[in-house]
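ok posting inputs for the 2-phosphoglycolic acid job
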Amino acid sequence: MRVIVQSDAAAVGRTAARFVATLVRERPTCVLGLATGSTPLGMYQELIRLHREEGLDFSRVVTFNLDEYVGLAASHPQSYRQFMHTNLFAHLNIDQRNTHVPDGRALDLDAYCALYERQIADEGGIDLQVLGIGTDGHIAFNEPGSSLGSRTRLKTLTSETVADNARFFGGEQDVPRLAITMGVGTILESRRCLLLACGPTKAQAIRDTVEGPVTAQVTASALQLHREVVTVIDEEAAALLVRRDYYREVERAQELLESGGLRRLVPGQSTS
Ligand code: PGA
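and the output
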């Protein structure tokens, strides 16, 4: 797992957007997995800027969102479909027909969840999955105890998640208790994961995810089993990481590698 520590949330957003933009430029028909919540907002703002100022083209990009509250229609102001529309889709040249957010009003949930999985597979799978993390260590709405092999399904939210998300509603009493969410197994099948976290409330969850054991009690820790995860976090979210200095060393080597400078460190390869 690559761990990139940035000075603040704005820098996390810009760095994360760079990973997405590079993929969109290399593969204009790529499939993006997207997340809601406060954390990816900076990344979305930067992607909108890149679209407006540098012509980043989303016309053939396909997206799948991680989750949706059960019972909320797409038009509900707190639905994740509305969130994506307001914060991203309305500002890009994306074809709305290529954007997928689970349907919170689906009646036959088992059939609907199986359909969502099929839609992902039919598009060739997810190339890059953007993830936030809950204070309880969840990815998507895979709460503690979720099977690490789980697929898209119905999930009951923990009281911690309900309290965390109450700020988007009138209060805790208005937060839906159930959600449709991609499973941990679904997420692990994406080709690359981009995990984002900002602020001190995420420090313990990030420590558990990056340096703790793999456990269903912290579903984000399952990312340790994935072959290509990039974790981009700010200083506050990184505060409890024991190997922080080492992650910085790795990033310095990565920068040298990307700039071609690594050759200068190999005896006999110096060109200067
Ligand atoms: P947040 O939520 O980005 O609003 O902190 C993250 C999550 O619960 O996955």
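notes: The CA atoms of residues 155 and 179 lie 5 Å apart. The pocket of 2-phosphoglycolic acid is lined by residues 37-39, 132-134 (CB under 6 Å).
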